[in-house]
Amino acid sequence: MSGALVFAWSGVLLFGLGLFGFIAHRHLLRRLLAFNIMGSGSFLVLVGLAQHGRGVDPVPHAMVITGIVVAVASTALALVVFRRWYRASGRTDLPEDT
Amino acid sequence: MSLRLVSAALLCLAVTVALAWAVLDRPLPEENLPDRVSSAMPQSGVDHPVTAVLLNFRSYDTLLEIAVLLLAVVVALALREAQPDRPEQMGLENPLLRAVMAWLLPLILVVAGFLLWAGSYQPGGAFQAGSVLAAAGVLLRLAGVTTAWLDNAALMRAGLALGLLTFLGVGLLVMLPGVPFLTYPLEYAGTLILVIELTLTLSIGLTLISLFRLTPPYADDPDEAREKEAETP
């Protein structure tokens, strides 16, 4: 078992945990956190698998850097939208979930 | 433990096992990307492969990413509400934080500048430097330091758009001699990438700061907010 596989499997595990949190919780903040854990898992898979037999592949690394910044910005945007939703409706979940 | 949770857990377990198996049993890609990147490195204008991929070989991706960041902050700006946005109300009541900030701020700026400069030959670059700048902005906000230039809407918007506009401008400018969009000429590649990275750092930092500033510590509870609105005419 190589180091690359350890990273990739950790990423897969994080993705599975995040997916479970995303399905199990209805509170939007928890869902956002779970979604971010899923995202981190997929970043870890990309970075881990970039170290295959031919040396370190810079292309997935560049993709992950871009992805992290976009993930931060979209999380912040989701928080802005969520707070607006809470102020407007007083709910912490979406009506179709219940 | 409801049926819903059990089925969700089973589903996620199945997905995880399938993904783990897929990761184990993957074919090598036909294209040897590390080789292609390292053979193209002399034409990139920088010495670090990740920066070369980000800002030269795949700069189209980065351009669109900056556009996505700008879009996020524009939407957040559109959704913002009237806020009690005065800095003296925003900070934590913490004199220690202010004192530490006086020491930390120059260091943070130096680190951001170093990361930006280091990006051309070792890990670093616009994204890391921009995030460090944003951290400085968030700390300033938490310390309750007045940042009048951040409240200047026109200046702020210009700063937010600067990165994307410079990127687009450089991409279009290099088309003048008749090469495709975003194909830098070899002799100017290093300089052009540095200029783009400099403006990107500023714009990414400002984007993250304004996303933070758009969600102030505010009465979130609808009833409480209504009371507040009733108090303030």
Give a concise summary:
Chain A is mostly helical and about 100 residues long.
**Intertermini distance of chain B:** 50 Å
**What is the succession of H and E elements of chain A?**
HHH
Parts with pLDDT < 50 across at least 5 consecutive residues of chain B: none
Which strand-content bin applies to the residues of chain A?
under 5%
Give a quick set of tags describing it.
heterodimer, A: 98 residues, mainly alpha, Helix Hairpins, elongated, B: 233 residues
Can you walk me through this structure?
The complex is a heterodimer of chains A (98) and B (233). Chain A is mostly helical and 98 residues long. Chain A has one domain: Helix Hairpins, CATH 1.10.287. In chain A, 78% of the residues lie in helices and 0% in strands. Chain A has helices at 3-24, 28-49, 58-89. The longest helix of chain A has 32 residues, at 58-89. Chain B has one domain (46-231). The mean pLDDT of chain B is 83. Helix content of chain B is 71%, strand content 0%. By secondary structure, chain B is mainly α.
Would you spell out the secondary-structure blueprint of this structure?
The complex is a heterodimer of chains A (98) and B (233).
Chain A (H helix, E strand, L loop, with lengths): L2 H22 L3 H22 L8 H32 L9
Helix pairs in contact in A: 1-2, 2-3
Chain B lengths: L2 H22 L8 H8 L8 H9 L1 H21 L7 H4 L4 H24 L7 H17 L5 H4 L1 H21 L15 H25 L8 H10 L2
Helix pairs in contact in B: 3-4, 4-9, 4-10, 6-7, 7-10, 9-10
